Automatic annotation (TrEMBL):
GO terms for biological process: coenzyme A biosynthetic process. ATP binds at residues 9-10, 17, 88-90, 98, 122-128. One of its GO terms (molecular function) is pantetheine-phosphate adenylyltransferase activity. Keywords: ATP-binding, Coenzyme A biosynthesis, Cytoplasm, Magnesium, Nucleotide-binding, Nucleotidyltransferase, Transferase. Homohexamer. InterPro entries: Cyt_trans-like, PPAT, Rossmann-like_a/b/a_fold. It comes from Streptomyces kaniharaensis. Belongs to the bacterial CoaD family. The gene is coaD. Its cofactor is Mg(2+). The record marks 17 as: Transition state stabilizer. This is Phosphopantetheine adenylyltransferase. Reversibly transfers an adenylyl group from ATP to 4'-phosphopantetheine, yielding dephospho-CoA (dPCoA) and pyrophosphate.
Amino acid sequence: MRRAVCPGSFDPITNGHLDIIERASKLYDVVHVAVAVNRNKQGMFTIEERIALIEEVTAPYGNIVVESHLGLLVDFCRDRGIPAIVKGLRAVSDFDYELQMAQMNHGLTGVETLFVPTSPTYSFLSSTLVKEVASYGGDVSHLLPEVVHRRLVERIAERKAQQ
C-alpha cells in the first residue's frame, strides 16, 4: 500500500491545501493529513476543530486519514510506516526552506519529500493571509471550502463579540 503524508497547520484549511491533498490522493492509496500541534501558538481553530473540518472537506476523496502530530514529522512517518511527504510549493521562496527540510528529513530517517507545484490559482494563498483579510471583512469565500468559510466568519464574529 502506497502511503504519504501532507503536513501543515491548516488553520484553516484552504482551497490551496485541498488542491495538494486531492492531487496526492490520486497518487497514493492512503494520504495522512498531519495537523501540526504548536503549543506556542493560539490558533484561530483548535486542533480538534481543524481535524473535523479537514475530515469533512476531504471525505469525498475516500482515502484520507486526518491526525494531529506533535514533534518531528519524521517520527510521525516512522511510527506509521509512511515513506513519503507531499508538500505544495507556491513560490521559489518556499523551495529554499522546503528543500532544507526535505534534506534534513531524508538524512534523519530516509523519508522522501515530493514537491508538488501549487495551482497558479492558489499560488498566493496562505491561511494567515486568509485570516487577516477575513478579519477586516474581506471576501475570502472563493479561497475556502464553503463549510470552512462559514466557520471562519463565525469565529471572527465570536472573537469580535468578546472584545
